[in-house]
Amino acid sequence: MMAFAPGAGAQALGELSCRALWVQRNAVYAEQGYCFKTKDAIATFGERCYAPYGQLTPDQQRYVDQVKAWEARKGCR
Questions:
Q1: Residue 45 belongs to a domain
Q2: How many domains are there within the chain?
Q3: Does residue 2 lie in a domain region?
Q4: How far is CA 52 from CA 31, 35, 48, 49, 55, in A?
Q5: Is residue 1 part of a domain?
Q6: Residue 27: which residues within 8 A CB-CB, separation 6 or more?
Q7: Which residues form the YARHG domain (predicted)?
Q8: What is the pLDDT of residues 7-60, one digit of tens each?
Q9: All residues at 6 or more sequence positions from 74 whose CB lies less than 8 Å from its CB, including other chains
Q10: Residue from 16, 18, 28, 30 nearest 60 by CA
Q11: Diameter of the chain by CA atoms?
């Protein structure tokens, strides 16, 4: 799993599968202690749930927005 990489270019994200984009996006939340609820997310990232409970920094939010844009372009669900 790739860690949060705010410098990752759009081209690099564009080469990822929908699943890899999902992992990229949720890895950012996992780093910030998001409390995952789905079995898939818990299986992938573990039992996370600590402060700041998924609150993202501005750089992290920009990266997540880039990933979401690629997910939309690719028609990921």
A1: yes
A2: 1
A3: no
A4: 10, 10, 11, 9, 5
A5: no
A6: 1, 2, 3, 4, 45
A7: 1-72
A8: 556 669 999 999 999 999 999 999 999 999 999 999 999 988 999 999 999 999
A9: 18, 21
A10: 28
A11: 33
